[in-house]
Amino acid sequence: MVGIIIAVLVVLFFGFLCLNALNFKPKEDVNIIEEDIEFDKEKATKNLQELVKYKTVSYQDSSMEDEKEFTKLVKALPKLYPKVFKTCTLKLSKERGLLFLWEGKSHDAPSVMMAHYDVVPVNENGWERDPFGAELVDGVVWGRGTLDTKATMNGILSAAEALIKDGFIPENDIYFAFSGNEEINGLGAPAIVDYFEENKIELALVLDEGGAVVEGVFPGVKERCGLIGIAEKGMLNVEYKAKTAGGHASAPKPNSPIPSLAEVCCRIEENPFKMHITPPVSKMFDTLGRHSSFLYKLIFSNLWFFAPVLNMICKIQGGELNALMRTTVAFTKAQGSDAFNVIPPEATLCSNIRLNPADTMDSALEYLKKIADNENIEITALGGMNPSRISQTDCEAFDKVAMAVASTWQGTLVSPYLMVQCSDSRHYGRISDKVYRFSAMELSTEERATIHGNNERIPVETIHKAVEFFIRLMKQC
Description:
With about 475 residues, this protein is an alpha+beta fold. About 40% of the residues lie in helices and about 25% in strands.
């Protein structure tokens, strides 16, 4: 009798889980504005090519930078976007930060549209074409910065150029904020935020690089997804140092520096940080999970029960889904002896930590020391930043961005998400909770892999879509 009762309860319980999955239906679609967008597409393409030609490469060692290239790009902007420079005012030029104001009919609800014009270094031997040649081949523009993020800068300015040409005046002020040292966490963006703070300017919307229109990134979802970052993970660089007397490799003693570091490395790899389903990820699951296959609907509609299963899947698979769920550790640098036959008296290992919004730099460092459990290993934080503030989604600002995404890439599922990279937008968290991260592009897995890698390039159609997106967004601001 007891067995029958247990069996009935089990059946009822799983019936309840399945009922939740069946009721886990898609939400209402984002409103779409049906409108033909007209602008000079050829000029937009040529302008991006011109921006890419400038070697605005940022280095941590400033002596390696060519300041003349940054200056030349800035001086070229009035020629490339003459109507913008005739209409808009340069409010700030500091620390390679540029802030333009396009005055609207009202000053009550200003918006900021961001990009950065510096790029990461290139290994020219790994490129099929000149990384600064901006060649147009078979409908694709090649070059460093085409995706990250000179295409965004060009999209913003080309959109404004087209709207100004048509006599459009925004309802509210729109600021264009560009930094020339984002890739090295420079001071351009903080200087701009200081300006807003000092002048008591309350921002209604901030948009920077971040998510994109992508496919195959969410379990069980076949449709394209337009991901809008509402927060971003923090970052922490950590050094692990081991010291001994060193010695000759012919007579090694136990516990030499490199094996000790290897042991710590393995412990940390085998003991990942705790999983946290933070609000940005929860909202993503609640949006995209409703479009998933039944098996995944079963999981995402009953996370209170299936969280351990999801945790196990993330640990095994790693990658993007795992990065959304927890603080991650990537070991990236190691240094020991300069000679094959010398045991180093000192060896170091370094890791790059990406902090889940539930963690901080201090809590992460404490966890690493606890897992390492080796008082002979010095574990030191080398710098970083805590996770960003989480922005609102139930508001007009998010709806505007979502509508521009849905209207430009029709048929796309629009969803909030947690950005796992860092951007200049994190600085705006101290003055606004309406900061969003969306790179106005549809990107394949292959294209995303070229960002900070070899052969970065952008299809002409993607260039044009970026301009369309910003025109639609500016019309709502």
